[in-house]
Amino acid sequence: MGILVEVNRHEEGGLEYLEIVVEPYPYPISYRGQYHYRSGSTKQELRGPALSAFLLQKQGKRWDGVPVPGVKAHDLSAEAFTLFRQRAAKSGRVDEQVLDDCNEALLDNLNLVDGDYLKRAAVLLFHSTPEKFITGAYVKIGFFAADDDLRYQDEVHGPLLVQVERTLDLLQTKYTKAQVRYEGASRLEEPPFPAAALREALLNALAHKDYSGGTPVQISVYEDQLQLWNEGHLPDSWTVENLLRKHPSKPFNPDVANTLFRAGYIESWGRGTIKMLNECRAAHLPAPQFYFEASGFVVAFAEYSATYWHQRGVRADLIPVLLYATQHSIITNALVQQQLGVSKSTATRYLGELEKGGYLQKIGTRGAGTEYRLIGS
User: Fold this and answer.
1) Which positions of the chain have pLDDT values less than 70?
2) Where in the chain are the domains?
3) What pLDDT is stored for residue 38 in this prediction?
4) Which fold has domain 311-374?
5) Quick one: which of 105, 120, 197 has its CA closest to 160?
């Protein structure tokens, strides 16, 4: 069983007895071919993906480092290799000599080879149909008018490196609508969500996904929000709070993450979530939400809208004030009177309630020069 116990012989009331002391063990215990662990006051058997992950960990391996028999470098996608070389040359994170070498040597340099076999990471990143070997290795996108009203959808297949570009292109050209504004004679299009933030969220979903579950990355797009879901979990002892500040990089799939880093897609310092927060703040959008749902991790982006404020419990007659502050950066008592057609005292009350509720910040002290800015914008 691989455990050590302490056996003590005692005597009490003329009777002898043995005391067996078993210290807590930080890992599951094998007994008759089964692995057991304690959860609270009950004993549980380790099964399925959790058992596979545990056995790999005992061998010092990760899921994406397992070798795949029957696949050679010449079976992989030329398009994926070309894309990687272009991006890696631009990032400067791979020596030119390595990029000029053959595909076999490039894979070996990226640590995607184990003996005579390619690793799962190599198949996932470079094979034209990775789903032949890895179930659910694709991205699913859907546009919803409501949670139960799917209007249209797409699936993005192919090498992981190519999935990144195709998914981002679909999101920007088909699933989200850019706002048009003009600066002089120049026509400018502003996407509803920062492209850099969406890219970070997508790359995080693909790099940190638990591929053993067999479920694709799912992106749900609504009129004023966008959610990315991937199967997986945070590192042990981490909470969502860790993601909101500087944290070490602990990729779930280190070989996949290393290749994405060499290609310039991601950083290696755990700054992706912070970048999402900063990009949304710069675009005057709510901070993205990070949470767990249905055995997976969700990143949710939203626009400031009537629905957004209603979901946060803001009273209906106060929502127009916040929407104006969103669109124009600031709002004043006079503007509330003008836009809502209310008296000065009512406008004062509205602004006071929103300031007290933590939605608006007062700039200035009193009088006509007092302005209010949306907190977080």
Assistant:
1) 1-4, 24-33, 36-41, 46-60, 365-368, 376-377
2) 6-46, 66-129, 139-306, 311-374
3) 65
4) Arc Repressor Mutant, subunit A (1.10.10)
5) 120
pLDDT at 375: 86
Choices 3.30.160.150, 3.30.70.2750, 3.30.200.20, 3.30.565.60: CATH for 139-306: 3.30.565.60
Buried b (16+ CB within 10 A) or exposed e, 324-333: bbbeeeebbb
Q: What is the pLDDT of residues 115-164, one digit of tens each?
A: 999 999 999 999 999 999 999 999 999 999 999 999 999 999 999 999 99
Residues paired with residue 153 on neighbouring β-strands, in sequence order: 142
Task: Give the relative orientation of helices 319-328 and 333-340 as an angle to the nearest 10 degrees.
Answer: 120
State the distance between the two ends of the chain, measured CA to CA, in whole angstroms: 58
Alpha helix stretches (DSSP H) within 59-131: 78-91, 96-100, 103-109, 120-126
Q: Would you state the pLDDT for residue 153?
A: 98
B/e letters for 18-41, b = 16+ CB within 10 Å, e = fewer, are eeeeeeeeeebbeeeeebeeeeee
Q: Tell me if 220 sits within 8 A of 226, measured CB to CB.
A: yes
| 152 three-state secondary structure | strand
Task: Identify which of 223, 246, 238, 215 has the alpha carbon closest to the alpha carbon of residue 139.
Answer: 215
Q: Report the alpha-carbon distance of residue 371 to residue 375 in Å, rounded.
A: 12
How many Cβ atoms sit within 10 Å of the Cβ of residue 175? 20
Whole-model pTM: value is 0.81
